[in-house]
Amino acid sequence: MSFVVLFSTTSFAITKHYCGDTLIDTAVFNKAETCGMEMDLASTVEGCSVIKENCCNDEQILIDGQDEVQIQFDKISFEQKVFIASFIYSYVNLFEGLDKNVSSFQEYVPPIVTNHIYKIDESYLI
Predict the structure, then answer these.
(1) Model pTM greater than 0.85?
(2) Residue 18 falls within a domain, yes or no?
């Protein structure tokens, strides 16, 4: 139960780096590595300005965990009570075993062995 609470309240981010339409890197909990082709900001050289479009972009997906955890169950509806009762009943019945081992051959006597059949049918490779 503690693992369920831990994972339901954990938030994390998935970052992706695209170069054009190609996915280069995906990372969880940290920043994705780049392809090294990012463009610097526009540079101006003596009145001449060149602006090139950057082919790379980053995408970030944030997955927020649950902020509030309900600790007390003060009000349980009738449907929840029925579900809990039926779950416990079916779970307990899974482990019911037989009171004793029932064997169908317990009252029969085994036959008397006169010849050892495994000795008669032996074959040897020479």
Answers:
(1) no
(2) yes
